[in-house]
Amino acid sequence: MIASRKEAEAAADRVPGSSLSARIYEPFMWLADKTGFRRWRKKIVSQVSGSVLELGAGTGLNLEHYPAGLDRLVLVEPDFYKAELLAGKQMPKGVEAEIVRAPGEMLPFEDDTFDTVVETLVLCTVGDPEATAAEIRRVLKPDGRFLFMEHVRSDGPRLGPLQDRLERPWMKFADGCHCNRRTVPMLRANGFEVEVTAEQDKFPMPPVARPIVSGIARPEA
Ligand SMILES: C[S@@+](CC[C@H](N)C(=O)[O-])C[C@H]1O[C@@H](n2cnc3c(N)ncnc32)[C@H](O)[C@@H]1O
Q: How confident is the model over 196-221, as pLDDT tens digits?
């Protein structure tokens, strides 16, 4: 059954978050954004169209990149403190953006609602990536697109195992982020055809959170 807004908000309250981590998020991301992420964000977010859901919109670092002429923009963010900061940001012009507090695992929307779901650096943090992928697929129209940018587990013989060992300490340091998720195979195993459009093994992230991958995933027929 599809969650109501109230149920989704109650589930969002159980997602870890704090006023401090929300306030330090943008300073924490500053260097990475300055040295490359902002360009990646723009490349991905500028491709959205139609009725759009951004998952884990955070404090709104993607807002400046939305194109004009969207039919609808829903910004989903479970963390109360980040959602509050998000609400204070300049919203994209020409569309009334709506902020919804919900976890990716429980999206309070009907099936086949959105033309585009977009996210940056969220599947590394969600509690249940498979359940989130299933929800994204459910709310996407059959010909919709899921645009993503994630850091993923390296296939490198040294870095991959190191990421496995550092998963717990990195989670503590980086607000619940897992540095060793195999996100692209996970999406492929959960009903998406995935085209990786870019992969980058260098800065802007510390080695433990590389490589960065962006792509377009489409629901399998
Ligand atoms: C690393 S931040 C990325 C924020 C933003 N997308 C960006 O690129 O700056 C991870 C985001 O995922 C959100 N998040 C954590 N658990 C989540 C969940 N279960 N469902 C959806 N978003 C979640 C966090 O609140 C946070 O905003």
A: 999 988 877 889 999 999 999 999 98
Question: Rounded to whole angstroms, how far apart are CA atoms 164 and 194?
Answer: 24
CB burial of residue 207 (10 Å; 0-12, 13-18, 19+): middle
Task: Provide the token pair at 88.
Answer: 């204070």
Decide: 127 in ligand 1 pocket, CB within 6 A: yes
Q: Is 129 in the pocket of ligand 1 (CB under 6 A)?
A: no
Choosing from 125, 152, 205, 212 the residue with most ligand 1 atoms within 8 A of its CB, the one to mutate for a pocket test is: 125
Q: Ligand 1 pocket check: which of 13, 28, 122, 179 to mutate, most ligand atoms within 8 Å of Cβ?
A: 122
CA angle 96, 97, 98 (to 5 degrees): 115
Expressed in angstroms and rounded, the spacing between residue 125 Cα and the centre of ligand 1 is 6
Q: What would the pLDDT profile of 14-44 be if each residue is shown by its tens digit?
A: 999 999 999 999 999 999 999 999 999 999 9
Looking at residue 202, its pLDDT comes to 82
How many whole angstroms separate alpha carbon 106 and alpha carbon 73? 18
Question: Domains along the chain?
Answer: 5-219 (3.40.50.150)
Q: Which helix (H) or strand (E) holds 30?
A: helix 19-32
Given the structure tokens 């963390």, which residue do they identify?
Answer: 79
Q: Is residue 1 pLDDT above 90, yes or no? A: no
How high is the pLDDT of residue 132? 98
